[in-house]
Design goal:
- By secondary structure, the chain is mostly beta strands.
- It has two domains: about 10-35 and about 50-130, Beta Barrel (Elongation Factor Tu (Ef-tu), domain 3), CATH 2.40.30; about 135-240, Sandwich (Hypothetical Protein Tm1070, Chain: A).
- It is about 5% helix and about 55% strand.
- The chain contains one helix and 16 strands.
- The strands form two sheets. Strands 1, 2, 3, 6, 7, 8, 9, 10, 11, 12, 13, 14, 15 and 16 form a 14-stranded antiparallel sheet that branches.
- The two termini are about 30 Å apart.
């Protein structure tokens, strides 16, 4: 069994990649066990409820405009759900595995400073809803319309009632607009042509994040296609997976 070093790892909060400002991450899954012990039972009895997820990050304070401190301050107490993507031991390139929190709210932030040390910025998040164990379809700069090279992967089919999810991030922008589509095929297009998955199309006019989902059945092979693009370049990150426990 392969072992993995912690570096490199990738930390994404919405459309921002903070891997260059963080040096520790943790994802904590807690099972909600409700006690249902009755008088006549021989011992304690429990039933499983819905599990909870918290994530924590340790990093380095960066006070420059639009950098780590500014963005973390913006989301503090904003009442919004945030897309937190954590990819332990990899650079979140095509085929990498990670975890995507669908509704993360800031639980705490701290900024400790010592005379003989760097100023830090540490944060924790509480997730609402489910989590996907995600596979990165691709994470690369694009410059034109058409299929994103190397993004075709056999992710596995999902049955009707299971929830298939795509997280789309535009993390670098030198363009005016683009449209990202997720497509499917049973055999990587060799006999069954790729077609757009219904509802899996998103228009961007700048940096941003979108979460798309369906409980309709999907085919095994997925890929990224750009139906419109205007500009010089943009970096598109797409991760997909199935919501845990949703069927």
């Amino acid at each position: 069994m392969a072992r993995s070093a912690g570096a490199p790892s990738t930390v994404l909060i919405d459309e921002f990649d903070f891997s260059g400002r963080t040096n520790q991450l943790s994802i904590d899954f807690t099972n909600n066990l409700g006690e249902v012990t009755a008088f006549s039972d021989d011992g304690s009895e429990y039933v499983e409820g819905l599990f909870g997820v918290q994530a924590s990050l340790n990093g380095f304070f960066d006070g420059a405009a639009s950098n780590f401190d500014a963005e973390m301050w913006t989301i503090l107490g904003d009442g919004q759900d945030h897309a937190v993507g954590l990819y332990p031991g990899n650079s979140a390139t095509s085929g990498s595995i990670g975890y995507e929190l669908q509704g993360a709210s800031v639980l705490s932030q701290e900024r400790p400073a010592e005379v003989a040390g760097a100023i830090l910025l540490n944060a924790s998040f509480q997730n609402s809803g489910t989590v996907i164990r995600s596979t990165v379809l691709d994470n690369q700069a694009v410059t034109t319309t058409g299929t994103v090279s190397g993004s075709n992967q056999n992710i596995g089919s999902t049955a009707s009632g299971e929830r298939f999810v795509a997280i789309i991030r535009v993390v670098a922008w030198n363009a005016s607009s683009l449209t990202v589509n997720i497509q499917e095929s049973t055999d990587d297009g060799s006999g069954d042509a790729y077609v757009d998955i219904a509802g899996f199309s998103e228009v961007f006019s700048g940096l941003g994040t979108a979460r798309l989902q369906t409980t309709s059945a999907t085919e095994a092979w997925k890929r990224i296609s750009l139906s419109t693009f205007s500009g010089t370049s943009a970096t598109v990150f797409v991760a997909v997976g199935k919501d845990h426990g949703v069927s």
